[in-house]
């Protein structure tokens, strides 16, 4: 009986880390995915990983408080690793929001059917394109690799190294901001040039309504630059995998 309880607790620990990790990921955490599929996927993955990773041998009888603490440790690992992956993943969507503000579409909000939250259309479009590129390049295998390698660095049942996990989350958030600005930098430069040209025309032709003319020009320039921006998203797919290896505390 004690052996069965030990094996069951080990399986629950693996299931907790995997569930916490996939719960915060952009693709697998969407509200549009039925809960049955999420539960079935996490249970199957937990069964697979529990057979290939070493489950800790618990000496003696484990109390309820100790079991809850072990499960909380696994949830901490899963949430921290998931947040790091999510922050880097959101860099493309952040660049889309920056572009939308320059185009004057910051108030153009829609209800995202995938997440159930309000978002901007251009940012959601760029995120969807990036997700399709990630999945077409077998990027979902990277998430499974993260889970597998996490048990090599942080075995099941170990106490979370909070400073290491916190540093990884902070670096991932700064990387999200940096790469979001880097991806939007060419378009920001184009808008800056447009503003300079409009300022020159405003000085040359004072009767011209620059504000009225700037709206269609900004939208047209933004759509044109986004079309030219697509190859950079494809190149960011490969860089995404490198950032994951660099930022994850594995």
How is this structure best described in words?
The chain has 250 residues and is mainly alpha-helical. The protein has one domain (2-99, 117-247). The chain is 76% helix and 2% strand. The chain has eight helices and two strands. A two-stranded antiparallel ribbon has the order 1-2. A hairpin with a 6-residue loop joins strand 1 (110-111) and strand 2. Helix 4 runs parallel beside helix 7 (162-204). The two termini are 35 Å apart. The model has no long low-confidence stretch (mean pLDDT 80).
Produce a short descriptive summary:
By secondary structure, the protein is an all-alpha fold. The protein has helices at residues 2-23, 35-52, 64-89, 91-103, 121-136, 140-153, 162-204, 210-247, and strands at 110-111, 118-119.
List the helices and strands and how they pair.
Blueprint: H1 2-23, H2 35-52, H3 64-89, H4 91-103, E1 110-111, E2 118-119, H5 121-136, H6 140-153, H7 162-204, H8 210-247
Antiparallel strand pairs: 1-2
């Amino acid at each position: 009986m004690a052996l069965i309880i030990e094996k069951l607790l080990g399986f629950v620990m693996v299931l907790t880390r995997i569930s916490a990790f996939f719960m915060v990921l952009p693709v697998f955490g969407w509200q549009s995915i039925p809960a049955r599929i999420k539960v079935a996927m996490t249970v199957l993955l937990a069964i697979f990983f529990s057979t290939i990773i070493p489950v800790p041998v618990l000496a003696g009888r484990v109390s309820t408080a100790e079991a809850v603490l072990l499960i909380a440790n696994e949830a901490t690992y899963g949430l921290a690793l998931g947040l790091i992956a999510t922050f880097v993943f959101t860099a493309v969507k952040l660049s889309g929001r920056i572009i939308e503000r320059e185009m004057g579409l910051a108030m153009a909000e829609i209800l995202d059917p995938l997440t159930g939250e309000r978002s901007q259309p251009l940012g959601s479009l760029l995120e969807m394109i990036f997700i399709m590129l990630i999945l077409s390049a077998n990027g979902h295998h990277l998430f499974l690799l993260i889970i597998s390698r996490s048990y090599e660095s942080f075995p099941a049942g170990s106490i979370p190294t909070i400073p290491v996990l916190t540093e990884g989350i902070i670096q991932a958030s700064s990387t999200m901001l940096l790469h979001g600005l880097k991806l939007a930098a060419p378009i920001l430069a184009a808008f800056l040039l447009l503003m300079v040209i409009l300022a020159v025309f405003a000085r040359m032709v004072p009767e011209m309504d620059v504000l009225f003319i700037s709206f269609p020009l900004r939208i047209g320039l933004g759509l044109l630059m986004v079309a030219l921006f697509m190859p950079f998203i494809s190149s960011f797919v490969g860089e995404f995998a490198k950032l994951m290896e660099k930022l994850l505390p594995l």
